[in-house]
Write a structure and sequence with these properties.
There is one protein chain. The protein is built from two helices and no strands. The protein is about 85% helix and about 0% strand. Helix 1 runs antiparallel to helix 2.
Amino acid sequence: MPVARSLALGVLLCLYSIFVVFAGHGLVYLAYSILTVPFSFMFSILLNRYSTLNLLTICISSLIIAMPFFVLFGWSHTGEVLKEW
């Protein structure tokens, strides 16, 4: 009986770990979406006003807006802002 109980506990721990990974990725994606989508939308409205809106400018503005988020996210995980490639 103790072997079955430890096996069940191991399976539950494995499922919990998988759930934590999915939940963590979901929270990061949600934060990324909340922080970048409104600013990209406002920037696209500005570009549309000056008739320079196209797919390239939307992608470039999204990358510019998302870059600080990714730098801070990397710093929070590794403690390094920039590292050698």
